[in-house]
Amino acid sequence: MKTGKNLILCGFMGCGKSTVGALLAEKLGRRFVDTDSYIEEKEGRFISDIFREDGESSFRAMEKEACRRLAMEKGLIISVGGGTLADEQNATLLSKTGIIVFLEAPLSLLAERLSSDKARPLLQREDRLEAMKALYLARLPLYRGAAAFCVDASPSPEEVCREIEEKLADFSF
Ligand code: S3P
User: Fold this and answer.
1) In whole angstroms, how far apart are CA 58 and each of 53, 55, 65?
2) How far is the CA of 123 from the centre of ligand 1 (A)?
3) Of all atoms in ligand 1, which is nearest to the CA of residue 15?
4) How far does the centroid of ligand 1 lie from the alpha carbon of residue 122, in Å?
5) Half-sphere exposure of 19 (CA within 13 A, CB side)
6) Distance 2 CA to ligand 1 centre (A)
7) What is the chain's pLDDT, residue by residue, as a tens digit (173 residues)?
């Protein structure tokens, strides 16, 4: 049954939100939107260029506008950037209009997955691991607080997808 709700996948960079979201959308016959891709398409620029040319706060304003627009739609599967829910208004709006799922993975696994990342602006620094750790610890309670449920993001995308589908059975979506 299609309800008025969206399904929102949140979690730290590298947790697999976009891969799992696309897979889940295909399985469930829903439309998939990734907020970073949405912003890049609208802007005609990569996220890294937006950060470099306009700064992080401009990117956060674009992210907020993307949340506002997508929250008006129904039945979408949305993956949001790792920092989206750090904004309280985004978290409130998305939880009112959708079911938020937190893809949780240990920092060590995320660090491994992101070790050669060259695209994410927040990771392009000498002290990458320390910066990741500080962000991770600050954001964990926000992800947990906003989510209707958590899934283990360590296994393959197919398995994560299956776990979400199982847990979704308790919700009308
Ligand atoms: C960010 C995560 C990125 C992207 C931007 C900022 C963050 O998305 O939105 O680089 O603040 O954690 P992913 O989580 O999809 O990598």
Assistant:
1) 9, 6, 11
2) 10
3) 14
4) 8
5) 13
6) 29
7) 456 799 999 999 999 999 999 999 999 999 999 999 999 999 999 999 999 999 999 999 999 999 999 999 999 999 999 999 999 999 999 999 999 999 999 999 999 999 999 999 999 999 999 999 999 999 999 999 999 999 999 999 999 999 999 999 998 88
